[in-house]
Structure formats: C-alpha cells, structure tokens
Here is the input.
Amino acid sequence: MRCLILILWLFGGVGCGQFLDVVAPGSKIEASKIYEDNITAMMALYSIYGSMFNQGASPAKLARYTGLCGDELKLTWGPDDEGLYWNNISTGNGYGTDLWNTGYLYIRDANDVYWGCAGSERLDPVIKKQLMAEALFIRAYWFFYLTNLYGDIPLPITTDVQTNALLSRTLQRDVYQQIASDLLTAQENLGDNYIGSDSKTISSERGRPNKAAATALLARVYLYMGRYEEAAQQASAIISMNEMYALVPLEQVFLKNSKEAIWQLMPGTPNIMQINTTEGNEFIINIPPKYKTQQALSNSFMNAFEQNDQRKKSWIGSFVDRSISPAVTYYFPYKYKVRLGEDLKEYSMIFRLSEMYLIRAECRAQLEDLSGALADLNTIRRRAGLPAKLNNSLDKYRLLNAILQERQVELFTEQGHRWFDLKRTGTVDAVMAIETPAKGGGMWNATKRLWPIPKEEIIQAPNLYQNPGY
Amino acid sequence: MKNTNPKYMKFIVIFFFLMISNQIKAQLVDLDLHGQSLHDVSQILHAQTGFNFTIQSGVTNARGPIHYKCSRMPLQKALKEMLSEDTYSFNIKDNYVQIKFKVPMGKAVVEPVLDSMAVYDLRGTVVDAEERPLAGATIFLESSDKAFTSNNDGRFLVPKVTGKDTITISYLGYETRKFACSERDLIRYTLYLTEQQLAPVVSKGYYNVPVDANTGRISAIGARDIQRQPVSDPLMALAGRSAGLSINQESGISGTAIIVSIEGINSLANGNAPLYIVDGVPLAMSILNQLENAAGHLSSMQLPQPESIESVEILKDADASAIYGSRGANGVVLIRTKRPKPGKTALNVSVYSGQGKITRGLKLMNTQQYLAMRHEALQNDNQQPGSSDYDLTKWDTTRYTDWQQQFLGGHSNIINASGSMSGGNEQTRFSLGGIYRRESALFSHDFASTTLSTDLVVMHTSENKKINVDIGLHYMNNDNQLPISDITSKILLAPNAPPLFTNTGELNWEDTTFQNPLGEHRQRYQALFNHFLGSCKLSYELLPQLKLSANVGYNYIQLNEDLVIPLNSMSPVLSTFSSLRSHSQGVNAIQSWIAEPQANYSLKLNDAHSFDVLTGMTLQQSKQHQSLMTGKDFQSDALVENISMAGVKDFTTDENLYRYYGIYARLGYNFKNQFYLNFTGRSDGSSRFSKQRRTEYFGSAAAAWIFSKAPLFQNVPFLTFGKVHANIGRTGNDQFSDYQFYDTYTVSTGYGGILGLERTQLTNYLYKWEILIKSSVGLELCFNKRYTIAAIYFWNHTRNQLVKYNLPAVTGYKFTTENLPAVVQNHGLELEWNIKQIQSTDFQWDHFFNLTIPYNKLESYPNISSSFYSSIYEVGQPLDSRFMYQFKGINPKNGIPDFKDLNGDNKIDVQDRSARYIGPQFYAGWGNTVTYKRLSLSVFFQLVKQTGYYVASMDVPGRFEPSGGNQPLSDEPRWRNPGDDVRVQRYTADNQEAEHANVLLTQSDYSIVDASYIRLKNVSISWELPQSLSTRVKIKSASLFLNSQNLATWTHFKGMDPETQRYLFNYRQPPQRVIVVGCRISL
Here is the structure.
C-alpha cells in the first residue's frame, strides 16, 4: 500500500506536458485561423483601412506634411514641425519616420492579406478574389506614396521577414513597374460597382476601392511615369462612365458618396471621436492656433487664385486670432466642413473625377492635343466659376503651366498633390528656391526634394543607404 | 567607496567599541512563577542562562507546581530556594545542571560511590519539553563512536559507559544536546524544539535546515520588527532590515507601490521584482491599476497585513533561490503568517492610533521674494508685464499663501485595530483574527484608505503524529479613495495666487485666471481591492525517514477602479465642453492556484554521514482578466456618476493565462555536523515559451564548513562559531508577457461598421528564459556567543537577456523578442552583524547592523547602438544610469546654461548626452533594542549613500506659470549682469533660448546631487504592565506602546525627500513621519 502511494505520487506528474499548452486568449485570434474564415479574413483587410483613417499616415497627415514641406501650408505654432517646414528634415524621429514606418506597416498588412488569402482554400472564391485585389491595390497605393516621398525604396512583396529585412532600394522606375503591374491585376479582379462590408453585395457607399479606383491610380501612375497615352486612356475610361461619375457643384464635392468620388475613405470602426474626416478634424481652425498644433494656408498659395475663383470662397475658411495683438487672420483648408459630428456627412476623398480631367488634360497637352487638353481644363475651370481659357492664347508650355496651376488650386491639401506635382514637373527647384528662404529655412538645395530615410532604419537594415544630402 | 563620509564611519566605530566592552556577568536569573512545573522552570532557566538541564525521572512530579519569584538572583541560589535541599540535590558544572533526588545517606553506603572509572549500563528516557517521550532519537556515545536509538517509549540503553563519558542525543527538529554520563539513575533527558531554542532552523522554502548547517545566508525579519512599524504595506517594514535588500517608496501616498530589488537589477527589459511567496502560495505582484490616480502605481501587496506576519525570509543567493528555478532570479521573499500555539485559548487585542506628517518640505519664496524675481526676470528680458502675467497684473500682489503649508501642512489620521483568538491542543489548533485600518490622506481627510482583513488558521495532527494538516485562509478588502493627481506639485503656485474659495464658499477660479488645484478633488478615484489567499499543507509520514507532503494554494486578487471626472472640477473656461466629463470603471483580477506534492527522505548512514533528499513537483496556473469601460460626453454633472448615461462608451477587455510546471530535487549532505553540501536542481516548463523552448534546467551547488569544530580552531579563545560557505548556481527569469511566442491577431479599428483584426507581433518561437548565474562566498563568525558577524561577497551575471530586438520598419514590424548575448553584472559586499550587547536579568541590549555595497553594470551588449536600448543603457555603465547632458556652466554673457558639445557638431542635441549614474553607493541599516525590566526601546536607522535627482522646478525661474512658477530659495548667487561668473542661471520671463536651455538643464548632470541620508526609520517604545497589576484586572498581559516611523532625517538633499526623488519627477509627496500610540492586551 505504501509503495503504491509512493509510485502514484512520483509518476502523477508524467503527462503534464499538455498542461502547458495554453490556447490563445479570447481577446486574440490565432494567426493560422484568420484566413480560414471569410469574416476574419475581411477583418484583416478592414484593419488596414481603419488605421489608414486614423493612424500615422491619415489623409490629413499626408496633406499636412507635404503641404508644410512645399508651398501650400505655413506653420502657425509648434516647434515639432519646424524642421519639415524649413526643409531641414532631421534623420531622427518625427515626420519622416511616421510616413515611412506606417507606409511599410500597411504594405506588410496588405502582403499578409494577399498571401494569406492566396494560401487559403476555405474562403468563398468571390470574397477571396475581392480581398486579394484590394490588397494589391493598397500595396500599390502605398508604394506610390513612399517612392514619391523617398525616391528609390525597398520593395517588399512577400511576407518573409528575413528577406524583407535585407532588401536594398529598388530604382523608382522599377517601383513604378511593380505598382502598374499590381494595379492591372487589381483592375482585372475588381468590379465596377462598390461593394458593402460583406465584400460581396453592391453598396451605395463609395468606401471600398472598385475597378475605377484602381484605374484612377493607374492613370496617375502612368502620368508620373510619362506614359501619357496610357494615362489618358485610363482617365478617359472613368470620365466616360457618366452614369456613375460626374462633376458636382463645389459645395457638394466632398460630401460622402458624392458623385465625383471614385474612392473615399470612410471613418474607422468604431469611431469614438466622431470624426468624419481627419482633414475636417485637423484643418479647421476654431481656437487660437497656439493651443493646438495647426497650420494655415500659405500666403503664396492664397495668391495663386485667380480673381473670382469660387473655390477660394467655397473651400477656404478663415479664423481671426484676437488673443494676440494686432489680431492675425489665418486661412485654412475648408473643403471639409465638419470637425466632429455623430451624423456622418463627409468622407475623405482619395480619388475624384476632377483629377481625371486634369490628368487627361496634361496628357493631351503632352501629346500635342492642345484643344483636347484645353477642353478638359476648362471643364474644371467652369465649375470654379472661372472663364474658359482660349485656344489661341496658349502654347504647349503655357498650357502645361496653366494645368499645373489649376491642379494647385483644385487639388490643394489632398494628400500631397502639389508637392508631387512640383517634383515630377521639375519646377520644384525654382519654386522652393524662393519659398524655403521665405519660410525661414535658409537656402534650398535640390537634395531636399527627397526626404531622408529614418536614421534608425539605416542602422537596422543592412542594405539600405541614405538619400544624398542627409 | 573612497568618498565615504567620515561622519557615518564615526558612528559605526563608536558602537563597535561599546559592544565589545561588555562581558557576561554571573548567571543571574529572573523568575516569576505561578504554578509552573519544574520542567517549565528548567526551560525558562535554559532560555535565560543557556544552561542545559537534566532532571531525574520523577523529580518533576514529586516537586509539583512551583510558586516563586526572584529577580537578578544567582542561578544556584534560586535553585536552592526552589528546591528543598533535604529532598533534592543539584549539580552545576560547566553549563550543565543536573537535578535529582537527594540520595539518602544510608543508601549511599549500599550503592557504590560514584567512581569515574566504574563501568555500568546507562539507561534513560528521551523526552521533549512537555515530558512526552521521543521515539527514534539518536544517542551517540563519543568514546566508542557507537550510536543507539530510543524506543517507542523514548527509552534507551547505552552499555558500558563510565562517568567520564559523554553522550550526544539528537532528534530531528530538536536541538542536539550533550550530556555527561555521571549519573546512572534512570534519567530523563529533555530535548527542546529547535525553533524555540538558540539554534533555530531557517526556512529555505521547500525545506528547512538548522541555521548552523545552512550553506548560504538567509536574512530573516521577525514579527516583532515588522509590528513595531506602523505601516500599511509589509514591504515598507523591510526597508533597511536586510543586507542586499533595497526598498524604496515611490511616494508617500498610502497605497503606492514599493520598489523592491534584491542584489541589484538583473534584467534589461523584463521584471526585476522578487518572487513573493506567502505560506507556499506565490503572490501575483503585477501592477493592477489601469486608471490615473495620485499614487501612480498602486501596490498589490495587500495580503497579509503586517500584524498577521510571523516572519519574512529573504532568499538571495543561488543556494536558496535556485530551487525556485525560472522564478528565482530576482530573489525570493518568503512570508510566513502566524501559526497558533497550543494552550489555553488566548485573546489578543491591539489598537493604535496616530498621525502622519510630511518628513521634509521646501523653503519656498514668499510673495515679496517671488515678485522681486518676476520683476528681475522681466527686466532681464526688457519686458513689461503683459496681460497674461496674471500674478503681476490681475492678482493681489500683497496676498501671501504658503501653498506648501496649505496642501501638505496637514496631517493624516491613522487608526489600526486588530484582534485575534487562538488556542487548541497539541492535536488541533486554531486562530482567528481580524484587522481594521484606516489611513486618511495628508491633504484632506475626505480621502482615505480603509482596510478590513481577516485570517483563519487551523492545524491538525493525527494521534500518531503521522498526518499533519495546516490550513490558512486570509481575506482582505481595501478601499482606497484618492484624488486623481498628487497635489504636491501645486506647492509651486505663485505665493500671491488667489484664495481657493470665494466668500460664498465656492471654488475660486478668479475670473478664469486661476487653475484651482482643489478642482481635482472633485474628481473621484476609488480603488477597491479584494484579496483572498488560501493555503493548505498536508503531510504524511510514510516511514520514519520518509515524509510525503502536498502544498495547495489559491490566490485571488481583484481591483475595481472607478474614476469620475465632472465638469465642475475644471475651470469655467471649459464649461461648454461636455465631452470632458468622463467616468471610467476598470476591473482587473488575477486568479491563481498552485499544487506542490513533495517527498522528503532522510538517511543516516552512520554517525558521520547523513543525507536529506527532497523531491517535488509544482503545478501552477495564473489567469488574469481585465476590462475597462470608459464613458464620455455626459450632458450634465448630475449624470456623470451613472456610466450608462454617457454619450460615448468604450469598452476594452483582455485576458492572460499562465501555466507553469516544474520538478525539483534537493540533496543535502552532512558530515559530522561540520561539513555540509547542498545540491538543488529544477526542471521547469512555462506556458510563456513555445513548445520547442519550454523546458529549462536550473540548479545550484553549495558547501559550508564549520571550521570552528575542526581541531585546529577548537582552542581559539572567544571563537564560539566559525563557518565559511560558498555557492554557485543558475536561476531564471520569466517575468515577461504571456503569449509572446503565440502568432496572434487582435481586435483593431476596422472599417465600414465591422471591426478589424491586426497582427499582434512578429512571433519568435525560439526565445527562452533569461539565465542568471549567481555565486557567492561568505564567512560567519561568532565570538563569546554574543557577537555574530557575517560577510558575503556575491557575484551575479545575467545572460541570455530577453530583449526587444529591433527590425527595419520595411518589414512592417518594429521589433521582435529575442535572446541576446548581453550580460548584466551585479556584485557586491554584504555585511551583517548582530550583538547581544548586555544580557543581564533586568537589562538587555541587542544591536544589529547591516551594510550593502552594491555594484552593477551592463557588461556587454553586442551592437547596442542599433538597438532599442541605445538611449537607455550604455555598456560598462550601471543600469541605473541616465543619458544626460553635461553642464558646462552659466554663460557669463547672457546667464543661460551651457552644455558640452560632446560630438563637436556645434549644436546641443540628444547626441551630446552621456550615461550618468544616479543611485546608491551603499546602504545600511542599524538597529538597537534595549530592554530594561518591562520597558523596551527599539531604535532603527536607515543609512543610504547615494546620488539623486533634483531640479528646483521644471520651469525656468522667473516665468509665470498658471500651475506653478514659484521657486525654492537658494543661497547661491545667480546671474544678474553680463560678466557674472556664477552657477545659477538668470531669471527670465520669456526668453526662448533660456527656456530651451532650462529643459536641457533638467536633463543634465547639473541636476545630479548628493541625496545621501540617514533616517531614523523607526523608534518604538513599549512598556509592559507588571504581572501583579495585570493579574488584578484579570488579563494575561498588557502593554502600552509608542511607535514612530521616519521620525527624523538627516540629509544635504535640497529637494523634498531623498527617498522619493526620481528622475524627472521631483515633487511627489514625501514619506510621512508617523507617530502612533496604542496598547496590546492579552486575555
């Protein structure tokens, strides 16, 4: 008996190995199960849109950083953004790091969704196709922004961390190739209609990228690549869909699901702060700017408007700061009218028809179709209450300048159009050579076109090197 | 240590002389007997004199109960008076006393006269103090090297002894005693339980060993020392009490977490807290609060309350802590709660009450001095007071309020009542106790911490003594109400700031120019702790040498938090922002259990060699569940109490499961009670690691040699005891988050009405425990039985540091968890001495001292510059270092601080910081207990030699700050005119450059100052009522006492308190000076 107790006692512990196998807690889901189920697979994708809305690289932040860096915005208060504003970006923490880190985070998530879906056999084929196409679209979208901010960039297209950590920089030309090829695939697999949150049924909300969204980005990418014919072709494809897309009066452009919208970013879920758009929330000045790090529209930008441009009335707001004497008037982007509100009225506009007209105008001008270009340009001018430009008054060079100027006042503070336009058209040096000293940043230098890769990144990634000038 | 202040050394030297100048006087005894038996008396005398008593069988019964009283009486005389010389005789030789029946004259003729050479058979009985026979005791005859065993009745027979022989009787758990074979009558040889005697055992957690046989050194703090201190957190009572143990309060607010470290910081990235074990049950010591409150981190050390603690043992070295394997790296704190003793039912009641005040304050500017500073500042900047300089333009410049006095000048009220009932017999014992404690906050009695706790202990032993059960149940409820933030920082309000209340008694916001600090007092924070701890220990003696036992425990701790922020707590400027109202409720609960079966086998090969073998297993689970609900945007203050009325609600929840499994073993070897070896080993598995890396092995080897027993040292005069010991071993640290190896997704912001799922982390399946290699050598000496000195040198290395390993952001991940070959080194010297200074009947003086000289550094870290830790740690520097700018001086031209441009790039930025050490050089504790008759006085000092952090104010002097701006008075000359070569910056109201420089100044070595201190940590006086008086009022005993904590502090530190100073936090409520009076009554 005694021996039996002893033996039982001594060997009672055997088999305790299983005791240590804990399951994932209720608040977490095992990675291996995500792409086994339609809902969780969709949720992985929605997480990207959710964080694009409210995190490190929101539409407002893209607009703010590029606006301060270029000639759109001026600093009202806040030493945090001084380096950026003065075109003297440090390689340390801050704005440069923000967009780089967040951009690659979205790309990682997009790769996760793409390869996760690709390897799964349990997903509904329709949903699987949709999610994979959207993942490619998101990846292309962020590659586009990163290459325009930083130049040649590493190009992670798989989920293999070991490989990605060792990537070197890919030439911008090849980055564009990858973007274009991703977008063509996405285009093929996305439908004409917008779909709802079940990723299947048609929705009236223009919150999920559809085929036209991929087309719009492709048009932009071809334009940047100088492939004008293809760009014009893609832009035309959208302009011709009159049923779906149309220019609307200025006050209605940025409303949710406006007919001009090709893709709008809706607020994340849940939206505790009741933000409609990050632009509305961050740009509208309603208290003296010293209480809140904010920025206002620059003087040179305000002077860029022609007389009677209705956009100046409709899309720009002002605030008089009387807390200092003499009082100062600040002008701010007012395309979005809602700061906070439970009742959602506006969504962040990512692609809209107006840009397609301007892309086509530019392509046509480049391809010597000046009248065609002028027609497109005047379509936009007409809506802004401006007189049409006449055929005989412009040569190609002037027409291109007019289009660039039109883009400036039409697309301002929409995710960096102005900064990228300056760079791709080669006008950046001329413009910034005046702007930078005026902002207090000293001499402009051509190396400042590109932002520095974060210092940490250069240390961590063995095969990356810094942009010249940093 | 070159800079040791000679003042401290003087103290030490003086007392060293004092203690050796005393010698033992004649054996004087002090008796007050009311019907005790002779055996009881012998026990009392043994305790008082150290003499061993042998009493002939039957003498006790024949003498019957003794009533006798004497004081300072020589032993011999006392015995004479107690025992009639006609009937009994007694013999005092060396330190043995023999009491027997007097041999009648006639009989002496019959019996042969005791001849020292005569050979006879010695018969005797081994009994315990209660006269119960001890079966299986070993009787060892030294002359023949033979051993004998007592039978079931405790009887034994040793053949062929002579009067010159001696026998040694030993029995497990009892003190081994030596007797002279000078009496051949049937003698009862009494053995005393070791724990009641001079050679107590020391608990090493899973097993106990006699102190002498310990192969390491363990510091123990007893109930008396803990209960002398009127503190709510038992950890606070340990400060300074043990070498190698560092205890720091983060702030003086009741309920604040205590920072504890044993022998330094071992881990770069993971926990450095020791393992706390209460009656065999590990405590969950994680910080539970999720909401903001004045205390910052709330302590979760809620059980047991100080009154319930019997002893605390600190396991530091590998020898003791390696058996705890993966949890033992940072040392182990073993807490044992009180256990009932058999006897008449006893009722004990103790009540005390008192007050606390802050230990130290600042000398701040008064209105006149403040205004002068402000004007000088404006003048320096060539400015006139502007409209936002409320202190000069809007507020009454003749007003003066001493804000420090206003906010911290008050006192806290403390009341503590405890009662317990205990009793039972040898077989079944119980105790039931309860404690009530309330401690109000310093700044307002509306805020208080109230604790209710109850303990129930039941013990049972079977008739054959083979089965033992010990059950302890402890429950505690603590309700801690605090404001949302520590008001201490508000003592820097401008001295002419407006009154707190208007004439009508409303909070004064002075036309919205004043941020009334009392607004926050309308914000209500409540922490409600519920803590239950149950332990059950079962043991069964299968064979005389083999004991099986099992320890089962359950621990549940839950913290409910409630934070209400109404709008009327804020300035009327904000009165339209209903979104600022908020109400949060958090629940955080940890539920854990442990089961530990164990087998213990003792083997005595012969008289020289004996072994103790122990093997056991641990199964442990800990489950944490936390949730937080936040409501915002209430329409009115009337609704804010009800979270369901919130316009916006948010709810988060999380849970963690931790499981742990281990097998451990210990082998102890004893060679002739002179040479000891101790081996421990453990194999652990933890759910915090992936399957591949789950198992790890830990262990230790230790040896001790009591050289004083070796022939060479036997004749050294004065040397009572001498031991050297050494040990080495490896322990582990698994104090990091659960599920780190688990590849998971967690809920995130989603889109289109559906939530998102995002990847939690980049999973590394291959990381494992941090490994700590500990080694130490020690020496223990005892002279003249009274002077005990122990010195230890320890040398610890943490390898395999589990750190965040940075990844390029291109991968989409910032870091992953990885073991790096980084090494942290801790070494140091620990010294403890203990002296029984005077041991006379009426007057006793005990004295103890401990000293720790720690040294810590990051020995290596491959490629640290590219790691997450590059701005936190520097190779070759202590882990306590901070990266700081180097102050160069005040620029004589403009009065602005200058800093060294270390990298020579002509600008001062983060690159120009270097690691500077802020921390202790040594720390010590020094205590004295003096007892004169019924009066007892205990005085305890804590000494710390350290550098600390101090800046007068985070704001540049001279600037108006609505929430502060006043400055401490300084004797040092400041910059006033160009060309002034001084060390204090200029006053400035609005100079961007000076303000920027001031920010750097607060992060520069300018703010490293001497923060050494000597603190009179505890003074305790107690007076016991004379027995005659207490008998008259029909109580067993009663005493009155006065206890005080932090009574006085000597320091050159310029800030508020040298103990609560922290980097970049300079004004937190200092520890309180507490004085309480109370009484303790036993019925």
